[in-house]
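Model it.
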Amino acid sequence: MIKVVDHSDEFLRDLIAATDAGLRAASHEGADGAAASMPGAGATKYTSPTGQVRYFGSNPGSPPGVRTNRLKGSVTNARIQPLVWGYGTNVKYGRHLEYGASTPGGQPFWKDESGNLHFAKKSSPHAARMAKTKPGRIAPHPWLRPTLTSERVNMERAFVRVASQRMAQSITARVA
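Modeled.
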């Protein structure tokens, strides 16, 4: 007599877990690529003969330059829901750098003796006497979306590697 046992529910559960693990690996690869896309030399530092320091950002359309590593260090991947993983940042200005932004203007500011800008709250009692910023536009500096293209092959390889290993382990456990 031959006994046939249906393991399809277990196989499906293992397939979903393997797919989720593969997606995690792929999103991790994408996050690493996004962080690596920001060159450390992108923010040019200029020190004048008098010691005044100024930073010049990267050109519009180029990934943002790194000055503090705050954005670069914040890039991570996360599970959004079962079988949906993503990568990005929780730093507010990350979105403005990626897509560009409008600045409303009207922000009170002053310059100190070194020429550094300092911003004040609009509710400050001295705000009425201070100069105000003008409305403007921050040009996009895409750094996240381009990694979907540049890291696609690495993300696919990471997915296949991890999902295949998980399924191989599952099949080996069922056969044994």
